[in-house]
Write a structure and sequence with these properties.
single chain, binds adenosine-5'-triphosphate, 10 strands, binds magnesium ion, 246 residues, six-stranded mixed β-sheet
C-alpha cells in the first residue's frame, strides 16, 4: 500500500510561492488502478513527481509498503506528461532504459517484442525521439514503462497525444497487461470517460491548490462492454457533476 499523509508541496518561484498540493491524504491499495482526475494546474503531475521520487521537497509523509520511496529499491514504471525520452538515445535504447543490457547486441525477449509490436513502434527502433511524432514518442514512453514490468506504474496522461482509435487500443492493451499481474497503477487523466473505463478507484482533485475531493469506488470497472452499460452512464453523470462542482 502507498500511504500518503498530509502531503503538501510548495514551489518557490522568483517572486511568489505556489501551493501545488495542500494536505493530500490517501491510501493506495496494492493491485488497484487509481485514476486521478482534476482541472489543469491542480497538482496531478506534482503528485506523480513525489511518488516517483523525482520531487523530494515536500512536507507530510509518503511510504510504499511502510518504506520511504526509493526508485532504486522499487521498480517504478513512469510515463511523464512530456514523455521523458532521452533525445540522444534511439527508440530501442530509450525503451530498454530500465533494463540492464549485458552487451550491445539487440536481443529482444518475447515480452519486449510483444509490447513494441502492440504499440506499433517495432519498426522505429533505430530512430531518435526528434524523428518521431508526438504520439509515437508517447508510445515509446509507454513501452519503456511496460517492459520494465514495474511494481508500481505511474502514468501522467499517457494516451493524450493519441488519436481516438489508437487511444482505445492502448487502453485495451494497458488493461490486458494489468490483468496479467495487477500492477498497482496511478493513472492521471483529464477525461471522465477514461477515468471510468480504466479506474477501479477514481480520485477527484479540487482546483489548485490540489486537495482530494472524493475517492470513488468505480462500479463500472470490470463490467464487460462497459462503454454501453447503464451503470456507466449513471456513474459518468455523477462523476461529471463532482468534477464540475470542483
Ligand atoms: N517548477 C515549478 N515552479 C513553480 N510552479 C510550478 C512548477 N511546476 C508546477 N508549478 C505550479 O504548480 C501547480 C500544479 O502544477 P502541476 O503540473 O502539478 O498541475 P497538473 O494538475 O499536472 O496540471 P495539467 O493538468 O495542466 O498537467 C500549478 O499551479 C503550476 O503552475
Ligand atoms: Mg500535469
Amino acid at each position: 500500500m502507498i500511504a500518503i499523509k498530509d502531503l503538501t508541496v510548495k514551489y518557490q518561484g522568483k517572486n511568489e510561492e505556489t501551493l501545488a498540493l495542500d494536505k493530500v491524504n490517501i491510501n493506495i491499495n496494492t493491485g488497484d488502478i487509481y485514476t486521478f482526475i482534476g482541472p489543469s494546474g491542480c497538482g496531478k503531475s506534482t503528485l506523480l513527481y513525489v511518488l516517483s521520487g523525482i520531487l523530494k521537497d515536500y512536507t507530510g509523509t509518503v511510504s510504499i509498503d511502510g518504506r520511504d520511496i526509493n526508485p532504486k529499491a522499487q521498480r517504478i514504471g513512469l510515463i511523464l506528461q512530456n514523455y521523458g525520452l532521452l533525445p540522444w538515445k534511439t527508440v530501442y535504447e530509450n525503451t530498454m532504459l530500465g533494463i540492464k543490457i549485458k552487451n550491445d547486441s539487440r536481443v529482444l525477449d518475447e515480452y519486449s517484442s510483444y509490447i513494441l509490436k502492440q504499440l506499433g513502434i517495432d519498426a522505429l527502433l533505430d530512430r531518435y525521439p526528434k524523428e518521431l511524432s508526438g504520439g509515437q514518442q508517447q508510445r515509446v514512453a509507454i513501452a519503456r514503462a511496460f517492459i520494465l514490468k514495474p511494481d508500481l506504474l505511474l502514468m501522467d496522461e499517457p494516451f493524450s497525444a493519441l488519436d481516438a482509435i489508437t487511444r482505445e487500443e492502448m487502453q485495451e492493451l494497458f488493461l490486458n497487461i494489468w490483468k496479467q499481474n495487477s500492477v498497482t497503477t496511478v493513472f492521471i487523466t483529464h477525461s471522465v470517460d477514461e477515468a471510468l473505463y480504466l479506474g477501479s478507484k477514481i480520485v477527484v482533485f479540487s482546483p489548485s491548490p490540489g486537495r482530494i475531493l472524493e475517492v470513488l469506488e468505480n462500479p463500472c470497472f470490470k463490467l464487460d462492454n462497459l462503454r454501453f452499460r447503464d451503470e456507466y452512464y449513471a456513474m459518468s453523470t455523477k462523476l461529471r457533476k463532482i468534477v464540475s462542482k470542483g
